[in-house]
Amino acid sequence: MKVIKTERVSYWYPDGSIGIDDVSLEIKRGERVGIIGANGSGKSTLLFLLGGLLRPTKGRVEILGMEPNKRNIEVIRRKVGIAFQNPDEFLFNPSVRDELVYVPLQLNWDEKNLERAVKKYSELFSLENFLDKPPFRLSGGEKKKVEIASILIYEPEVLLLDEPTSSVDGKSKRLILKLLKDFEGTLVVASHETDILRELVDRIILLNLDHKVEVEGGREILEDFELLEETGVL
Predict the structure, then answer these.
(1) N or C: which end of the chain has fewer CB within 10 A?
(2) DSSP summary character for residue 160
(3) Residue 108 above 90 pLDDT?
(4) How many CB atoms lie within 10 A of CB 43?
(5) Would you give the DSSP letter of residue 156?
(6) 222-234: per-residue pLDDT in tens?
């Protein structure tokens, strides 16, 4: 089953600059896909289009069989988790605990399940001592862990991650990688870190400096250093 499909999708920013140009792709249920490209090639833009956070200027995006609109966007967001490159754009609740329970509360989880999930994910991410702290008082790495924990806690079917290991120390990076390897749904990761993509994904979408898909294929793309140099990745 196709989980996400784009048909000749383009996106222009309000200032007229191009984010993504004429991208058509399909992501099937259970696939693990990496998006790679030079800075400014459109990785984040494409990820946000795939998650319904942006509406294409041209073309069509279909998510879980639905074209995102005001009537179905909440249904999509409960099934599709999106982590931003900068967690400050994601975190907005007064405490870490509030961040963790925000979506489960929207899904009407009972108190018992809420507490069990908070205990599980705060322990997994070593956040037990931060539950009552405001997220803005945490370090960049701690914010990243709160962001990813806040998504994994409600078990989305699809996980879209923008630079999931940026600003984290080695220990936290290994933890995040392990949890993402164990994730059983559909995974899409945008990253400039080829070592991360080698561990997490099976298919690669390489964007070029013209904001188009240069090539799609397996992890062997990550070993084509000449191609990666030509497209500005290296």
Answers:
(1) N
(2) E
(3) no
(4) 26
(5) -
(6) 999 999 999 988 8
Choose among 50, 40, 48: nearest CA to 18: 40
Q: Are β-strands 58-63 and 2-12 bridged in parallel, bridged antiparallel, or unpaired?
A: antiparallel
SS3 track for 34-88: EEEECCCCCHHHHHHHHCCCCCCCEEEEEECCECCCCCCHHHHHHHEEEECCCHH
Q: Long-range CB contacts (< 8 A, 24+ apart) of 73-78? A: 76/51, 76/52, 77/52, 78/103, 78/106, 78/107, 78/154, 78/156
Alpha-carbon span 75 to 64, nearest angstrom: 10
What is the C-alpha separation between 233 and 210, in angstroms, rounded? 13
Please state, in angstroms and as integers, the Cα–Cα distance from residue 179 to each residue in 57, 75, 121, 152, 207, following that order: 35, 25, 11, 9, 27
Beta bridge partners of 62: 5
Q: What is the pTM of this model?
A: 0.91
Q: Which of 118, 1, 13, 116 is nearest to 55 (CA)?
A: 13
